[in-house]
Write a structure and sequence with these properties.
6-stranded parallel beta sheet, 230 residues, single chain, globular, alpha/beta
Length: 230
């Protein structure tokens, strides 16, 4: 079972709880994600994809916020190199996004380079694991993903088939379940892969999402008949 996640509501959670530090709020959200990853494993998932940072976020948010995000994500990737929650569970981590955009198309290039380096170290340190796959969608956009896949097919002089497109996507497997907290739109996330996903939009901010919420979603999913257009 492949579970995809858009963990939305961070700034609203800050306002609700009176949190003044953006870095503190995102760190809380990341700790919640570690819980979510363990819950998914407990409920039988073998792949999780999280929309951590979109290309649109990077382009449209203030420089100070992007600096904070790059710093927090980079530190968390570095910490994960020795985090038993990753290694005990044998979680294989994939960095899924536009690396060239991060390295060459953003401000704070030194921070972006450190983020990419730490993510690539994490990929390398977990590449032989196979219990659970974690796709981190960072500097990710669904339209951009399709365009780069099409460009790769063209450069390799391959026929334009669904199989060849899928093979060149950043996220190659199609999610069974897609969850977005506190909103009910895809926001350019997995727009090719989610064509037949079962979608859930719990009315909770990300940091308020619980194990019981996930259990309820999975129970509902298991009771559905998936028809794939038939």
């Amino acid at each position: 079972m492949h579970v995809a996640l858009i963990p939305d509501g961070n700034r609203r959670y800050m306002k609700k709880r009176g949190i003044l530090s953006l870095g503190e709020s995102y760190a809380k959200g990341i700790q919640k994600f570690y819980d979510f990853l363990e819950w998914c494993a407990d409920f039988g998932a073998d792949e999780v994809t999280i929309y951590a940072l979109s290309t649109e976020n990077i382009e449209n948010r203030g420089k100070k916020e992007i600096e904070t995000l790059f710093t927090v994500f980079s530190q968390q990737a570095e910490n994960a190199l020795s985090d038993e929650r990753i290694h005990k569970r044998r979680v294989k981590v994939n960095f899924c996004g536009d690396r060239d955009f991060l390295l060459n198309g953003v401000s704070h290039r030194d921070l972006a380079r450190k983020l990419v380096d730490n993510l690539e170290k994490l990929e390398d340190s977990t590449k032989d694991y196979g219990n659970l796959t974690l796709n981190l969608a960072i500097a990710y956009g669904g339209r951009q993903e399709i365009l780069q896949a099409a460009e790769k097919i063209s450069l390799d002089d391959l026929p334009f088939t669904e199989e060849n497109l899928k093979a060149n996507l950043w996220v190659k497997d199609y999610p069974d379940i897609l969850i977005r907290t506190s909103e009910d739109r895809l926001s350019n996330f997995l727009i090719w892969q989610a064509a037949y996903s079962e979608m859930y939009f719990p009315d909770k901010l990300w940091q308020e999402f619980t194990r019981s919420d996930l259990e309820e979603i999975i129970q509902d999913y298991e009771g559905r008949e998936r028809r794939f257009g038939k």
